[in-house]
Amino acid sequence: MSLRTIVVLAVLTGVTGSPSVTIRPEADPAALSAHPNSVPETVEQTKVFGQQEVLVEEEVEEDVMATGELNPSHYPAQRAAKVVQHYLNNRYGSPYRLFGLQSVHSGNAENVTDSERKYQLEISVQEIISNTSEKCSAEVLFASAGRQGSARVQVSCEELLKINTSAQEEAFYQQYKMNQSLLSAETLPDSYGHIEPDMRPLWHLGTVASSFIMLNESTENTLYNMAQVANITQLPTENDQLKFDCHILLHEMVSQEIIHWKLQFTWTPAGGVKVLQMEQLPHCQDCEKPPNTK
Question: What is the pTM of this model?
Answer without folding.
Answer: 0.76
